[in-house]
Amino acid sequence: MRLVLFSTLGTGLADWQRTGTLARELELYRRVAPSVAEVVLVTYGEATEERRLLAQAAPELGLLAVPRGAAAARSLVLGRRLPAGCAILKTNQMRGAWAAVRARRPGDRVYVRTGYTWSWTARRMRSPWHRALRGIERWTLARADLASVTSDAQRRYLRHTGVCRSARLVVAPNHVDLDTFAPRPRRAERDIVVVGRLSSEKRPALVLAAAARGGYRATFAGAGPLAAPLEQHARRIGVDAHFLGAVPNGELPELFARHHLFVQASAFENMPKSLVEAMASGIPVVACRAPGVSELVEPGCGALADGTAVGLANQIAAALADPAAAAARAARARAMVVERFSLDAAVARELALYARLSGGEACPS
Question: Alpha-carbon distance 41 to 64, whole Å?
Fold first, then answer.
């Protein structure tokens, strides 16, 4: 059976390279490739550049690059260009998953994977489009042979809202490479590090406010629309803040080792990869209570704050004041990640799902 992975509509390898996540996004499929006939990526971008990046990052994978111009229309006729023979058509996100549905040929199976639930996220951001997005999800999932989300909370939401009540909806959590993200000798030079997109839902301004209250030295790894305003705000309120831009995923363990604490202040998440990677790396975690975060930061595995600058600053202060207790929580967090989110487990789960799809069996909930 062949695997054809449809990237998010309009997203290509160049986008993953720009955000420092190219190796992370491809590693699962590099591990899966020896066990299937072929893995082909459908990406959006300039073909020559996409081929160059794939040759560097994962030469064993195939590529079908769709020009960005009119990507939505072009993606609907991809079935004519897919490799011959039956295939599992898997999506990377809901946005653009309809391309896989439309490209389906007799004998193909459609596997709709969503890293985040589109309508749920839109509703949290108070977008007026969340009901329309729910309709797109309902239409797409009704035509899928299998669908997966990254957390049980997302599965409950899709079932509660009637978007998808099928037994073919399963939970496939995000994974982490435990060899790359492993505890390193700690030589902390700064207090707190934040990894993620600099946008409003991640609440980087809240971290700056907490840092100002405690006089903490903060580092932000990530790009986004708030980068320039945040730098100006940090100077204005007198916070010692470093803004690194996008950092390649493989460099994050070294960055973690140079900081005392990892801070996650998002208002909501689905299943934040950077948080799991931090926990795997053995850095103590302080996070704000929020959907998608509280489920990961289990009791004894990290510190949870309320969503205020005072509450976050207090939890940071407590963790810095008792490094032995913080280290013990970090060790328990690492053990939890090893047990639940390893890349090896993700590969085994993925291949099991492919086997069930190619055999025509329904997957258990």
Answer: 6
Which is the CATH superfamily of the domain at 190-340? Glycogen Phosphorylase B; (3.40.50.2000)
pTM of the shown model: 0.89
Can you give the three-state secondary structure of 249-302, one letter per residue? HHHHHHHHHCEEEEEECCCCCCCCHHHHHHHHHCCCEEEECCCCCCCCCCCCCC
Closest CA to 243 of 235, 251, 3: 235
Residue burial 137-156, b: 16+ Cβ < 10 Å; e: rest: beebbeebbbbbbbbebbbe
Q: Please state the φ and ψ torsions of residue 52, each to the nearest 5 degrees.
A: -60, -45
CA 4 to chain centre: 20
Say if 2-175+342-359 and 190-340 have the same CATH topology. Answer: yes
Whole-angstrom distance, CA of residue 321 vs CA of residue 188: 14
Cα 195 from Cα 215, distance rounded (Å): 20
pLDDT digits (tens, 9 = 90+) for 183-215: 999 899 999 999 999 999 999 999 999 999 999
- In CATH terms, the fold of domain 2-175+342-359 is Rossmann fold (3.40.50)
- Segments making up each domain of the chain, as ranges: 2-175+342-359, 190-340
Phi, psi torsion values for 65, nearest 5 degrees: -95, 130
Q: What is the pLDDT of residues 317-343, one digit of tens each?
A: 999 999 999 999 999 999 999 999 999
